[in-house]
Amino acid sequence: MIYADLKTLTKALLSSDFPLPEDDASIKALLNMAYNYLVDKCQVLNLHTEDKSENIQRLGRGTFMLRRPEVPKGDNDELDIDEELCPAVACLIASYISDKRIAVHQARADEIIRGYNAKVDELIESSKEITGEEI
User: Over the range 49-67, which residues count as b (16 or more CB within 10 Å of their CB) and which as e?
Assistant: First the structure.
């Protein structure tokens, strides 16, 4: 998903509530908060690295670390997370802004994260069975 699509989705989630801020700096600050939450709660596969020179947020499984996702510079930049997690980020941003549906947006984000984590755990277990090593 590109950054412009994330903003569109977040605006839609916030319809009949507080609006998404107009200034891009505020949206990117909220995106950064959502990324922090996501990386703390999730084994985001495309953020796994063994390179200690990366901007590391936390330790992952095995020898892997999870790097911090890059905040997009422009509207056409791809988000630096797995596509499946983009709606969770939109829900998290909506939960930070919402007046009426904070819990709904947070619960939806957590549900998406739980589903993603279950798939990652299944992938890791399958890989372990096939190769004998954890990815």
Answer: beeeeeebbeebeeebbbb
Q: Concatenated DSSP letters for the chain?
A: -BHHHHHHHHHHHTTTSSPPPSSHHHHHHHHHHHHHHHHHH---GGGEE--TTS-EEEE-STT-EEEPPPPPSSTTSBPSS-GGGHHHHHHHHHHHH-SS-HHHHHHHHHHHHHHHHHHHHHHHHHHHHHHSS--
Residues in the chain: 135
Q: In this predicted structure, what is the pLDDT of residue 60?
A: 83
CA angle 31–69–130, rounded 5-degree value: 130
What pTM value is reported for the model? 0.90
Residue 104, class by beta-carbon neighbours within 10 Å (0-12 exposed, 13-18 middle, 19+ buried)? middle
- Give the span between the Cα atoms of 37 and 35, in whole angstroms: 5
> In sequence order, what are the residues at sequence separation of 6 or more whose Cβ sits closer than 8 angstroms to the Cβ of residue 12?
none
